[in-house]
Amino acid sequence: MTLLDERISSLFKIHWRITLTYWSALFSFGLCIAFLGPTVLDLRCQTQSTLQQITWVFFSQQLFLMVGSILGGLFKKTLPCSLLALFCCTLIISFVFAVIPLCNHVLLLSVAMAIAGLAMGVIDTLACLQLVKLYQKDSAMFLQALHFFSGLGALVSPLVADPFLAEDSCVLGANWTANSSSPSDLQHLRSSMAGHGATIGNVSQYPLHTEGVVVTQVSFAFWIMALINLPVPAAVLALMYHERLLPYTGKSPRLIDRDSLSSTSPPEDNVHGSWFACCNPAKFRDRPASFFILHALGGAILFITDGIIGSYAGFVYTYAVSPPLLMGHKTAGCLDSTFWASITVGRLAFIYLSYRYTAPRLLTFSLLGVILVQCLLLIFYTSCVFLFIGTCVLGLCISSVFPSVLAFTEDMLNYKGCATTVLVTSASTGEMLMQLLVGLVIHSQGSYTFLLCCTISSFIAFTLFLLLLFVRHIHRNCITDSSQSTDMKEKPRTGGS
User: Fold this and answer.
1) Alpha-carbon gap, residue 272 to 269, rounded angstroms
2) Is residue 198 scored above 50 in pLDDT?
3) What angle, rounded to 10 degrees, do the helices at 289-321 and 449-496 form?
4) Coil, helix or strand at residue 324
5) What is the pLDDT of residues 325-339, one digit of tens each?
6) pTM (2 decimals)?
7) CA distances in angstroms from 188 to 181, 314, 396, listed in the order given
8) Sorting pLDDT into bands at 50, 70 and 90, what band is 120?
9) Smallest Cα–Cα separation from 408: which of 479, 313, 475?
10) Which of 176, 239, 289, 301 gets the most CB atoms within 10 Å of its CB?
């Protein structure tokens, strides 16, 4: 344990600047992904659009986040390219925050959120790729810390927006005094859409004006978030200056040239991470079938678990205010914040746990915990108190799945594959599609099916994890047999010389 302490400590001392930079970049990611739900009604007023039209803003963000996750690996080949992409993307997020108040049409807002989603996807993939490359077998705890900062940003964003949200109708029509929505109705709508990427349900019973005088003050919230995010691109620029990667700073040994002090990796890792490099047929030669199955299983697990996170955050409020719970709007509105807070705390705790325990053990504990709490939520479906308790426990259990699966899969593949890009893309795709599917089921079958969908998904995720462990055993045997046959072929040559 002392040797492990010294190795991790020495690695962090070498790479602390770039590690902190990538951690701060994920704070930008979290800051941008969580603000849309609480502010969507005020943005509807600003763009003078209907709620059905504003749903395209959610879709554009999630769709281009997936595209950005795929493209992120393209910028990974060299450190200057990686940091330049990171600087541009974090600066774009501040720029998007600044221009959102100027978007007076829903199409312009959708374009702005698509640009932000693209930048977020690149940040997510790049940060994971670089930390895995730097720390390799010791990357688990650093990935846990990385996603803690993402959760922290997701907590800060709604807190900044809340004081500037309209409590009454933010578009005053000619007959607004008679027909405008009450504050409780607006609170109901806002809270039901507070989940990140949540699908907006049937809201036709709330008469919201699209024509009249806009009185929202949400612009100030976006400008404050733009300022909060500015230190992140500044930190990336400072790192580029320190490593003399800017054009006017001269030449010096770059950080990427000193990576030999970290865990060594084969030369073929230079193409690790890009979807285009992954599609290179040369990379598929002499690979056992288990190599591809491990990628598919790891991606499928994250597709489901990140989909559960997005679905739970998006629909837990709708479930709470519906029969049989009929929870008050303000009380139910705390569920989403409770869920994200527990995820953030869980990721903080798993930084230490990932140092003490192996990824398979943590994943077994996490996935079994998710199944257990989902089953208990189904049993005690009439208890408001247990819904809060279950939400906390679910957030704690599921918080570590993404970084643990990422570190575990890369370790199984000996950091030679394209696992990081595949897994990050699968997670963002699952988050987008599963929310859509769960929303359709709730719309047709009722709110109770929300818990049933999440429980079934949890069982499927655990089954896939058990299959992943089985395929890992087969993959190890394939690699061992391949190395032994190579040694047998080389022995006669050695003897003859």
Assistant:
1) 5
2) no
3) 160
4) coil
5) 888 877 877 887 788
6) 0.78
7) 11, 13, 26
8) very high
9) 475
10) 301
